[in-house]
Amino acid sequence: MNGWLLAAAAVAAMLGGKAPAQTVDQFYRGRTLNLIIPNAPGGSFDLYGRLVAKHIGRFLPGQPSVVAQNMPGAGGMIASNWLYGVAPKDGTAMGVLVPNVALAQVIGVSAIAYDVRKYSWIGRIVSPTATLFTWRTSGTKRIADLGTRETIVASTGPLSQVEITSRMMNGVAGAKFRIIEGYKGTTDATLAMEQGEVEAVVMPWTLMKLAHPDWIRDKKINIVAQYTRKPVGDLADVPSIFALARTEDQKAVFSLFFGPDEIGQPLVAPPGVSTERVEALRAAFGAMNGDSEYLADAARQKLDLTPASHADLEKTIAEAFEATPRQLEIARKYYQ
Prior knowledge:
alpha/beta; 336 residues
């Protein structure tokens, strides 16, 4: 046997007869990576999902093409279930999840076919940062006022975030919201506040800045509280709604209901993707968040960015599963 055959035999013996594994670069080169968006075209999830799809491929080894695909339905559960159980587990699929994926599982929503703890978490694109505002003439100007006077808040329906969380805060922490239903959307709710039909609305801070910059500039509203534990962006001086929670049970229930805002719009890959490829996706996400072209594109579209690491998201999710049976019993009274 000549020299090169001997060398080949030695390599084959060391590899157990298997071909050398592909590098991440080799795997992704020339491939297409599908990014699943859990809602229909045109909304917030679509805008952010397509922004990421446009840029993240530049930072992945091999620079694969990244194609955004909409998969709406069941409040985001169709996309979540597909990513968990159907999507390829080789790193060619990832997607954006809806914020309440952990809460829905912990509470026991029947449509769920995933375990949120087993996704390959990449990072958060943005937090919606739901924020409670009152009109300037309202007597509710500070977070402490929520427990001492009735605050009339507009609701877009019994399953809306504002109604679910307001009922929860009334029952758990002694807030005094009076909920007025019947508004078709945020636009109608904010108009009702402006016209004096209600005192308060809850809406994403980003949307408020885009839709009503004059309200902020001219101090037409009181920014009462933000629905996250950690200050976000230019809301650093606005108190967290968690200030209303006093006992451990109250804090745990608040964590369940407001945890979705901390999860925001997270980017995940299916469970079972190799460690090397997951780490490549995480590194690409991190590099993209510091890229001037990506940031400029977001600014042109007036899209705020509040990224968070996979570790931060995994911590929030783990906390949801630490709720005791008593705390879950309390939470189920208000999540219907």
